[in-house]
Amino acid sequence: MSDPSAAPGPAAQHKAAQHRADTSVPHSARIWNYWLGGKDNYPVDEQAGDAYTAVFPGIVTIARSSRAFLRRTVTHLVAEAGVRQFLDVGTGLPTAENTHEVAQRIAPEARIVYVDNDPMVLTHARALLYSTPEGATAYVDGDVLDPDAVLAAAAETLDFERPVALILSNILGHIPDDDRARAVVARLVDALPSGGYLSVNDGSRGTDPEFERAQDAYNESGAAPYVLRTIDRITSFFDGMELVEPGVVPVPLWRPEAGAPSPEPIGEHGGLARKP
What we know:
This protein has 276 residues and is α/β, with parallel strands linked by helices. The protein is 40% helix and 16% strand. The chain is globular.
């Protein structure tokens, strides 16, 4: 990464990102950030987010449950599986409990590479997210549809001779074709050494018909589609790997924290698996 002494400071970079952003058009990453309770959004994003929640209020629960799932899986990987390297593809705008924050809180030496192909997301990430001195946090301009380029860039920070956890959180729904999505995942997993892990969570079909109707209507509006997959199809991304208990389940049911309210199934499934 560039010499921080020669680069604009965080405040200047953040201001520049805001200046370049088109604040007249809602942006999916900023809407998701709004649902998560973040502040990197504009009135137009809040309006679009509110319009969606007016049709399906449960989307806020899905967004926040997805982030909680990320926190629990990363915690498990660091504290129980001993993983110290993470490749987070399709990271979205930074908000609370980002991958590097969770990992480095437990193991300051953890190394994390974030990947996104949205210049606004990358600018915000570089301005707002910093690593511990012992570890590393890098940000790669890359497209999940070009896994070879993603892996080449990630290898500048990560050692693929040692276990790496690949995180695909709410990104595969943006690849409508099942065969292409499976090929992308297979290529990324192929690069992981034995003892590496894959974490996937995505919107699902078969649990919440109201969510499915709302998302289908959104997709038919002309917006960039996000495809909800059946639970079996989400599970198929883990083919050839060893699923960690309890397998692929609604994300609130994946190892809920002790003392948390009884989790309810939602239209978002996820799982974690180890590469043999």
